[in-house]
Amino acid sequence: MTSPQNLDRATDLDVGDLTRAIENFNRFYIRLPSVQKLSFTTLSVLDTLAFRGPTRLTDLVRTEQMSQPGVTQLVTRLERDGLVERRPDPTDGRAVLVHLTEEGRTVGQSRQQDRGRHMAPLMAELTAEERRTLAAALPVLARLAELGMRARQ
């Protein structure tokens, strides 16, 4: 249901409708089967490192919305598995940066390929007009994600 504060009068876009559509899509998308069985949290950290580059543990606490001990424990496990490595922060000798290894990058790329394989047949079920509409929305969704990431920094 559209409420006055949720409706952008210039476009008739209901923010609540957009939020629900994104949540429904995400609920399905993040649960797509994967060849590599890793937790959502592990995949999120690997994705964050792939997107942001080397990151301090304290920043991972904020982006991953986990406790400091939880992030430290997860990074220790990922390091043991060869997916990340800790290196001294060149700007602050007391801190370390968590870096994604090539193996960690490969995990993320594999996950993306797996998702693509599951999405392709679903995309084929859309009409040509639905595919055009989705294609036209991609730059806007990318911009929205960019604005959201910038706001969290």
UniProtKB/TrEMBL annotation:
One of its GO terms (molecular function) is DNA-binding transcription factor activity. Transmembrane segments: none annotated. Gene3D superfamilies: Winged helix-like DNA-binding domain superfamily/Winged helix DNA-binding domain. InterPro entries: HTH-type_Bedaq_tolerance, HTH_MarR-typ, WH-like_DNA-bd_sf, WH_DNA-bd_sf. Residues 1-143 form the HTH marR-type domain. This is MarR family transcriptional regulator. It comes from Streptomyces collinus (strain DSM 40733 / Tue 365).
